[in-house]
Design goal:
Elements (H helix, E strand, L loop, with lengths): L1 H49 L1 H4 L3 H8 L10 E6 L5 E4 L14 H8 L6 E2 L14 E9 L5 E10 H8 L9 E6 L4 E5 L16 H6 L2 E7 L6 E8 L5 E8 H21 L4 H23 L13 H18 L3 E8 L2 H8 L1 H16 L7 E6 L2 E7 L3 H16 L2 E4 L4 E3 L3 E8 L6 H17 L5 E3 L2 H22 L4 E8 L5 E12 L3 E3 L1 H11 L2 H21 L7 E4 L2 H5 L3 H11 L7 E6 L8 H14 L2 E7 L8 H4 L4 E4 L1 H5 L5 H16 L3 E4 L5 H9 L4 E2 L10 H19 L2
Parallel strand pairs: 16-17, 19-21, 21-22, 22-23, 23-24, 24-25, 25-26
Antiparallel strand pairs: 1-2, 1-5, 3-4, 4-5, 6-7, 6-10, 8-9, 9-10, 11-13, 11-16, 12-13, 14-15, 18-19, 19-20
Helix pairs in contact: 1-7, 1-8, 7-8, 10-11, 14-15, 18-19
Cofactor: Mg(2+)
Keywords: Membrane, Transmembrane, Transmembrane helix
Pfam families: dCache_1_like, EAL, GGDEF
């Protein structure tokens, strides 16, 4: 009996240690990710201040450039920059910097006195201004002049309430704690929250030195702040001078054990004759019960069987994605995934095999989740995927891939070549159309999943029938696009680019698709389908070849077209052989690199494979090909990337051009983009010009090149040649005295 009780006591502590380690690890990852976002925004500000050309911009434009990435970090706090005296020169809260001086703050003084401190994290302080008088910390970076002299700082103030909100939902037991502290022992936040704890120190504790000398670990100690003994697990937060510590009170850990020890003792006294046999049996039952209670109490945010996030972590991830969608006015998809007839696997093969199947399915599902998305196990054979920035078409494609990957045979015994095949039914609910909160979306996706099962299983069903119809239409369109592309049905048309006098300065190659049954399909409709299906790389390669061939043909006929512009996407630039492909295409048609302009959207520069893309861009630039940003102002608009990447041309998006004469905001944005281009010595192109008023406005503000129906719609090659000849005569007559 005593051996059994001792083992039960050890098991309780072991399970508590696992739980604290899991929670510390999860909090460390989330905190590091958020601090990385904040630090990136700070470095963007520092870069903008160090760029001489940007310093000549008007204050409001400079504000736009400096804080172009603050949207990702707004919920964390505010950003600012100071001069060498500590006065604000940039302020994310106001276009005109507030009249504040921070020279008395430690995060300023440390950077002022030391050149090599790097990123500094301050002690807690109460802000001088603002509606909230809540404790705050600051991160700071040193700014220097060319000679190395101190020039000021970039600072980011972080609300400590943010960490309080992060910790408050944790289930810690009656006396459990979560503590965020600096490596010098200063407490920044503690849950349960007591205002007096913030700013206090743990440096006097017995375990403090081992805690700050290691990246992670576990120990048992009596707390400095409340003198309660706890089982602690801690983890260093990335490269930051921060540590997160999770503690479960030993009193809470052993509470169930104490109750069972008393129960075992009472039973032993009453039935002494059967003490050995009964104690062993009862101890076994109690151990299983204790394990169940401990698992519920341990706050494991990850499912123990599959390693996927469980419902608790799902709520956190879902909250993040929902906040992102609200902030960016974007959609996301909720996919309720339920394995078909999984009970039959358990009944015929046993639960061990069922568990193995679930682990394999979970691993496959992970491969379909990208950065920003979430995949979790709800329980049993139910999984939930939340796809950030996802429209109906993308949701359909991901769901189709999940159906396919789940259906692949699962090997159970390699020696006997035992395999099992299982299918799944998927219900999809779309935000914001099918619900404005996670609970409603989950319920509606669940209902859609049951509709998929009722329709025969191994299929996808949208909550709203019109989405399913739309997804099927997209799928039919994708099949038709693939077929027509292979049959060479698609064509390329060319839209002139002219200068302020109307002289031809180049042409943009644009793909067009006319289907026998569906008629003309707009590019805005089929290009996203080509991107999602993977056809876009082949399509872009074909357009590039056609455009270069046509430019060479025009020149051979005596028509002087200065250059050709072609659109490229991230998938093109991820290919290691793409720069070589461009070179070979130009050489095949006798063209020089400066005859070609490659246009890419802002989104390309923020792709997950940014390093591969940067390598291709650098190689293409080194060849002498001009690189342009298309639809500028509609994407991520991190303006600092304009001087990091070798961009030579900006195209103002047509949505801003169409607003000229109707919207002060559109006019202001168009003018701002022209100013930025002039400052950075970039060629600025306005596309989508339809009226003389738009053209006159752009001309008054020194726009370089013009494109739109006012001059000419996109034309087939022969019509383009006729237009170019006619336009050259018109331009010549204008130049005559």
């Amino acid at each position: 009996m005593f051996v059994s009780l001792y083992q039960m006591r050890r098991d309780a502590m072991s399970q508590a240690r696992d739980a604290t380690e899991n929670l510390a690890s999860s909090l460390e990852k989330e905190t590091e990710r958020n601090l990385d976002v904040f630090q990136l925004a700070m470095r963007e500000v520092a870069t903008s201040i160090k760029t001489p050309t940007l310093l000549r911009l008007p204050l409001d434009v400079r504000q736009l450039v400096a804080f172009s990435t603050i949207s990702d970090a707004k919920e964390l706090g505010t950003l600012s920059a100071t001069d060498a005296a500590g006065n604000f020169i940039l302020d994310s809260r106001s276009p005109v910097p507030r009249k504040l001086n921070v020279s008395d703050q430690d995060y300023f003084q440390v950077q002022q006195q030391s050149r090599d401190i790097g990123l500094y994290l301050s002690k807690p302080f109460i802000p001088k201004t603002g509606d909230s008088r809540q404790p705050t910390i600051a991160l700071s970076l040193r700014l220097e002049k060319e000679d190395g002299q101190f020039a000021g700082i970039v600072a980011g103030t972080l609300r400590l309430n943010y960490f309080h909100d992060m910790f408050k939902d944790a289930i810690l037991g009656q006396h459990g704690t979560i503590t965020l502290l600096r490596t010098d022992g200063t407490v920044l936040m503690r849950q349960p929250y007591h205002p007096g704890d913030v700013g206090s120190t743990l440096a006097g504790g017995h375990s403090f030195l081992p805690l700050v000398q290691s990246d992670q670990g576990s120990y048992v100690d009596v707390a400095v702040l409340d003198h309660i003994e706890r089982q602690y697990s801690f983890k260093r937060i990335g490269k930051y001078p921060l540590i997160v510590v999770v503690g479960f009170a030993t009193e809470d850990i052993y509470a169930g054990w104490h109750r069972r020890a008393v129960a075992i003792g009472a039973v032993t006294v009453v039935i002494d004759v059967l003490s050995i046999w009964l104690s062993l049996m009862f101890a076994s039952l109690l151990r299983r019960r204790l394990e169940m209670e401990s698992q519920l109490q341990q706050l494991a945010w990850f499912d123990s069987l599959t390693g996927l996030p469980n419902r608790i972590q799902l709520q956190r991830e879902a909250g993040r994605i929902l906040a992102h969608a609200k902030q960016n006015a974007s959609d996301f998809a909720t996919l309720f995934i339920d394995l078909d007839r999984f009970k039959r696997v358990n009944d015929t093969q046993g639960h061990a095999v069922g568990d193995e199947v679930l682990r394999e399915i979970a691993e496959r599902l992970r491969k379909h989740v990208h950065t920003g998305d979430s995949i979790s196990r709800l329980g049993g054979d139910e999984f939930l995927a939340i796809l950030q920035d996802c429209d109906v078409l993308k949701a359909m494609h991901v769901a189709e891939r999940i159906l396919h990957t789940v259906r692949e045979p699962i090997a159970l015994d390699s020696k006997r070549d035992t395999r099992i095949t299982i299918s799944t039914s998927i219900g999809i609910a779309m935000y914001p159309y099918d619900g404005l909160n996670i609970d409603v979306l989950l319920r509606n996706a669940d209902m859609a999943m049951y509709q998929a099962k009722s329709a025969g299983r191994n299929r996808i069903h949208f909550y709203a029938p019109e989405y399913e119809r739309k997804a099927r239409e997209h799928l039919d369109l994708e099949i038709a696009l693939q077929r027509d592309f292979e049959a060479k049905v698609l064509s390329v048309v060319y839209q002139p680019r002219v200068d302020a006098t109307g002289m031809l300065c180049g042409a943009e190659a644009l793909v067009r698709w006319y289907n026998d049954k569906m008629g003309f399909i707009p590019p805005d409709y089929f290009i996203p389908i080509a991107e999602e299906s993977g056809l876009i790389a082949e399509l872009d390669a074909w357009v590039l070849g056609e455009a270069c061939r046509q430019l060479a043909a025009w020149r051979a006929s005596g028509l002087a077209v200065p250059s050709i512009s072609v659109n490229v996407c991230a998938m093109d630039l991820k290919r290691s052989d793409y720069p070589g492909f461009v070179t070979r295409t130009l050489e095949a048609h006798g063209l020089a690199p400066d005859d070609l302009i490659l246009e890419m959207t802002e989104r390309v520069m923020f792709d997950e494979a940014a390093d591969d893309i940067r390598t291709s861009i650098d190689e293409i630039h080194a060849m002498g090909v001009t690189l342009a940003i298309d639809d500028f102002g509609t994407g991520f608009s991190s303006l600092n990337y304009l001087h990091r990447f070798p961009i030579k041309e900006l195209k103002i998006d047509k949505s801003f051009i169409q607003g000229i004469g109707e919207s002060m905001t559109s006019e202001s944005l168009a003018q701002t983009i022209i100013n930025i281009g002039k400052t950075l010595k970039l060629t600025v192109v306005a596309e989508g010009i339809e009226t003389q008023a738009q053209r006159d406005f752009l001309s008054r503000h020194d726009c370089d090149l013009y494109q739109g129906h006012l001059f000419s719609p996109p034309l087939p090659p022969d019509d383009f040649a006729l237009w170019a000849v006619k336009q050259s005569h018109v331009t010549l007559r204008r130049q005559l005295p």
